[in-house]
Every structure is written in C-alpha cells, then in structure tokens.
Amino acid sequence: MTDINFNIDKPDLPDEQINKHKDFKKLMHKYQTATKPLYKTPLYRYKNKRVFIIILLILLIMFIIIEVMEKKGEQPINPAIEEQTK
Amino acid sequence: MHYKIKNNKTQVNLHHKNDTALKREMQQVEAAKANPAQFDVLYENYFKSIFVFIYRRTGNEEVSADITSQVFLKALINIKKYEFKGVPFSAWLFRIAFNEINMYFRKNNANRIISLEQSNINQIVQEVQEEDNVQALERMIAALKQLDSDGIQLIELRFFEKRSFAEVGQIVGITENNAKVKVYRILDKLKKILQVNPKC
C-alpha cells in the first residue's frame, strides 16, 4: 500500500508563477560548471572538499618524510668509523 | 481478462505530434547536440510541461523548480546520447523527470501526490467496473491507494495524463507491449480489490 494524497480538480499554478522559475542562463552556467574538465577546475572548487583536504594531507606527509630523510642524510652514519678513516 | 479502452473516439492524446512537428523537433535536437546554447528552444517549449508534470506529483512549487532545473541540466549534459525512438523528445524529458521524482521520493520519504480531474476517475471507473455508481469515485480512490507505487504511476500516466502506451513505455523504461500488459494487469487488480472489498 502506498502513502498517497489525492488532489482532485486542483488547478495548476498560473503561467506567471511557473515562468518565474525559468532561467536558461542559469541552466547554461550550471551546464558549463558541470562539464568543465577536471584539470581546469581549481582544487578548492571541487564539490567534495574532502578530496582537497586529502590531497593537502598527502602533500604535507610527503613533505615531512622528505625533510626527515634529508636530515638523516646530513648526519654522519657512525662517528667511530669516521675517526678510523682519519 | 481483456479490456477495451472505452470512449476511444472522444479520447484525445494531448501528447501526440504530427510528422512535421517531430521532424522540426529533431532538427532542434540536432542543433542542440552541435551547440548547447541552441537548447534554449527546447527549454522554452518544454519548461512548463515538465514543471507541471513534476508539480502534480510533488505538490510543492520550490521542490518542482529544483527538480525541473535538474531535469534540464541532465538533459543538456546527455543530449548527445539521445536517439529518436518514434516518440516526441518530450517523452525523453519526461523519463528523466520521472526518474528524478522517484529519486526525490526515495531520498525524502515524502508522500506521493496524485493530481487528477474527476473525469479521469470516471474513466477508470468505467474501465474497471460494470456500472457506474454514486460512490464510485471514493471507492476507486480507496482502491488506488492499495496499489504499489509502480502501479499507481502507470495508471497516472495512462489514464490521468492520457498518454499513449508507447509514451508510457518510454517514460517508465519498458516496451510498449509491456506497458499495455502491465496496465491491464493493474486494471485487473483494481477490479479484484473492488470485488473483494465492496466498501473499499
């Protein structure tokens, strides 16, 4: 059984009321936004902002890893070995 | 059980288009495929009918405006996939609208609304019952409420909006023959509901 409300002989909205919602320019704007290639869309304009946040997080983590690796590279591996070679 | 569509001569298909109109419409569709800005002609032609189609099912002006906008956006995005299948372009738009409305009801768990004129009910009463009677309208409304949403939508398209079976099939996404079979089954079901429960 379906929950249904019956409107019997209820008049439709007048044309002026319906035409208030007609806006082809707005439709074209939505169309252009929807069909714009992804690479042309700025990251922060993604509908799903999570994607933007995740990309930022990944970049941040990569930056931290690289920094740590570089610091490790600068430090001598073992000072005792260095002295022996001298 | 076989049903004949009564009053066939007086029944007017409001959605019928002649060959010239269909050809002209196809040219407009092809123009819109080549240049989306040319879609304005189709938008202008069908905005009202799509809006009314949605408004009669939702009963809410703002919701109807939102869904209508969504319908035309989807139509514009997918117009290159559109293929002529012997029914007017509007049938394709109505199909998108039909799916959007169903999605709206699924998401919002809102009550369906059926908008109809009393004469529509009289027609379906004639289809199902042997004789018309004074309480036929109320009984029929009670019986219609016992149908599932697919059934009620088919009845709505066929009897309340007076669409051809081809169009009903195109909108619902089934073949014309399948639409006929389903509508007759629903009429059968309505008749059984009325017989089992005379107070209905």
What does this structure look like?
The complex is a heterodimer of chains A (86) and B (200). By secondary structure, chain A is mainly α. In chain A, 58% of the residues lie in helices and 6% in strands. Chain A contains 4 helices and 1 strand. The longest helix of chain A is centred in the C-terminal third of the chain and has 26 residues, at 49-74. The model of chain A has no long low-confidence stretch (mean pLDDT 80). Chain B has 2 domains: 12-113, Rna Polymerase Sigma Factor, Chain: A (Orthogonal Bundle); 116-200, Winged helix-like DNA-binding domain superfamily/Winged helix DNA-binding domain (Arc Repressor Mutant, subunit A), CATH 1.10.10.10. Chain B has helices at 19-34, 40-58, 61-78, 89-108, 118-128, 136-144, 149-160, 165-172, 176-196; one strand at residues 112-116. The longest helix of chain B has 21 residues, at 176-196. The two termini of chain B are 22 Å apart. The A-B interface holds A 1-10, 12-13, 15, 17-19, 21-22, 24, 26-28, 30-31, 34-35 and B 36-37, 39-40, 43-44, 47-48, 51-52, 55-56, 59, 61, 64-65, 68-69, 72-73, 76-77, 111-118, 121, 141, 144-149, 152. β1 (4-8) of chain A pairs parallel with β1 of chain B.
